[in-house]
Amino acid sequence: MSVSEVKKVPLSERIWYKELRFMAKRVRESPLSLAGLAIIFFYVVIAILAPYLAPPRPGRDPFEIPRYGYTITPSPPSPEHPFGLTQGQYDLFYGCIWGTVTAFRVGLLGVSGSILIGVTVGAIAGYFGGKIDEVLMRIVDIVYAIPGLILAMAFVLALGQSLDNVIIALMLVGWATYARLTRAGVLQVKQEDYVEAARAIGSPHRRILLRHILPNSIFPVFVVATLDIGSMVLTASALSFLGIGAPLGYADWGQLIALSRNWLIGTPQNPFEYWYTYTYPGLFIFTFVLGWNLLGDAFRDILDPTLRRR
Amino acid sequence: MGSLATYIARRLLLMIPTLLGVSILIFAISMVFTPEQRAALYVTSPKAASKIYQIIKKYGLDRPAHEQYFTWLSNVLRGNLGYSKSMNIPVIRAFTDLWPTSVEIAIYAAPLIVLVGVKLGKISAIYRDRLPDHIARVLAIVGWSLPTFWSAIILLAIFYGWLGWFPPGRLGPDAEAIVRSSQWVTYTGLYTIDSLLNGNLFVFVDALRHLFLPVLNLVIVGNAGIMRVMRSSMLEELNKEYVLAARSKGVEEKVIINKHVTRNALIPVVTMAGVLVAGLMTGLVITETVFELKGLGYWAAHAAEQLDIPAVLAFALFTGVVFVIANLIVDILYAYIDPRVRLQ
Fold this sequence. Notes:
In chain A, 68% of the residues lie in helices and 0% in strands. Chain A has helices at 15-29, 31-53, 92-128, 130-145, 148-159, 163-190, 193-200, 205-217, 219-241, 253-260, 275-303. In chain A, α1 packs across α2, α1 (15-29) crosses α11 (275-303) and α5 crosses α9 (219-241). In chain B, α1 (2-30) packs antiparallel against α17 (309-337). Chains A and B meet through α4, α5, α9, α10 and α11 of A and α1, α7, α8, α12 and α15 of B.
């Protein structure tokens, strides 16, 4: 039998198609995940329209928040600065809008880097097994042992403070989850007849892994990735809040909140005098992460084999 | 119980490679720094730190990495973790000085997180797809999505800035004066316990007042994980045949849920303890920073900001060790509750 005679699997029978249909069904059935989807869509629009909503100054880096003076005390919202100016007169509206772009960058890059490392490690461990598996999975255990934020703190310290290094640190911390997931999937699929067949006709390891095993076992990775984007943005904003993430004046939500730390307590006449300094950037982080988590909540059942397709 | 003993022994042995691995990871991170920067990892006083080149020679910081690793590890095992420039004391002193603050928050927060998570998960499962379930799930997702530092800031702005009820710090000035006086006997360093042992209710109430917001904050952001596991494990148990059997012989639903289902559903929650510990330590770094509680987390956060390398690395190593030990305890507990585990 020549290869050309192999019957193609019809689209509706393919695992990807079935999984995607199942996911879409879960989302449609759950009002919460629809709300999540709406929130994410809202932020995508903000990120795309950022150059129009908050036009960057010509010739300047758009991620540099404009300052309007050097006074320490924040200035309340005004028609020119709808969210007010934070400590050091950084424009909160500008920072929040461009912070959306930063958040997408951190979340998407952090997650895709983690997937790249994790899937590679997990696939090698699961496919080859034996000593290689043992060693690689021990490394995963070790990365797991140190809480993400704390390990990321150590990495950023070693790499130097910048947003790019925060993203690298997130990848170096986040891959472990994907390695475990991929390995589990590969171990399952490895036993299938079609893998055996591919091996029998002498396909190289690379081809077996990339063409036969991974496409059929990688689905949970993408499900977890959705759940992960929110938590990556949370960790990155925590690092910025602690003063070891984005540099001062960079459009980043966590950093804007760090600037509000000294203004929690208002004046005796008005205890919420500086409410805008912490409320706006906080709401941006919270709702952004909430959107991803609401969407992810529907996906969670997909990963749970006991709840599947009931 | 012989099999339990062998199980424990095996788990203890398995712990060693992980611990060694964690130490190698921390050491590998330290190797990114120059020998001059790394010198602070080996000294215990600022005076010694000024003689950088002598230190580099003495500890072989220009030698191959594996040699340095063993020098470093033997130093760490002897309790020499370097000098923390952000605190101006040796790292090991920082640990012995600061642990009570963090432990005091943790011993209140951990049981409350479990309690709230289990309760919410239970309600959510019993009323599956009805209003209480939706409310419990939304609460969990909201807590899960809240940035820990932001919820802490909002709590402070409302309950301290506006209402003035719960101030930051560990104690108010009056209580601080009592604690610092010569009559005060320090037993544990935890003010809520020491105050009772000293028979001083004023300090006790003051300490609780200062603990309230940080603990509340940790409970809000930390219970979602437990809630989720409790919910799905409860749903699984409710579908089992023994529930049907109990119902059909007319056992009251309340008895079925409280006596049978909840007990069985709690078993998987035990495995969450490791995650809980990791979440608590992360939460402490941020919560202590916002509430100005000078514990281990506060120290780690400030050390990172001031590029205090020995402090951050020692703290990361510490959290890794705590996590491994917590998981060991969980595994042993699990094997004790569920004998099937031991056979694997």
